[in-house]
Amino acid sequence: MKKSAVLMFAVLFLGFAALVSAQTVQSGTWAITPATPGFSLDKSTGERTMTIDIDFNKPFDTKPNVVLSVTQIDADKDFNQRYNVEAISVSRDGFTLKIRTWADSKVYSLSGFWMAHAD
User: Within 10 A of 66 (CB to CB), how many other CB atoms are there?
Assistant: First the structure.
């Protein structure tokens, strides 16, 4: 009887932990290519910036932390590869991904992964 009560508690605890964890972490991918309206990362020189709005599938209870990665870049080999990716305007509902290049860099496409997690 005691073992079955402990087992039942363990199953309930793990189920609850999985449910809570599923609600506090969300992730997805992002990409910016010449097909993106207003694409300018391969044009001219100087600073060029583009943004992508990311909406969470389900709003968080509190403002989450956002982690970004770059998984692919296509850039002109004759110029230095300069780029910066950051999450701005983070809220419970989503964030804006800001992608930037500068000087004579020519970026043809950039993609990556994002993960949002609440404490």
Answer: 19
Q: Where are the domains of the chain?
A: 26-117
Looking at the domain 26-117, which fold is it?
A: Immunoglobulin-like (2.60.40)
Six token digits for residue 96: 């804006």
* pLDDT tens digits for range 49-71: 999 999 999 999 999 999 999 99
Specify the pTM. Answer: 0.78
Cα–Cα distance for residue pair 112/67, rounded to 1 Å: 11
Within a 10 A sphere around the Cβ of 44, how many other Cβ atoms?
8
H-only helix segments in the chain:
2-24
Q: Write the DSSP symbol of residue 44.
A: S
Helix (H), strand (E), coil (C) string for 56-117: CCCCCCCCCEEEEEEEEEEECCCCCCCCEEEEECCCCCEEEEEEEECCCCCEEEEEEEEEEE
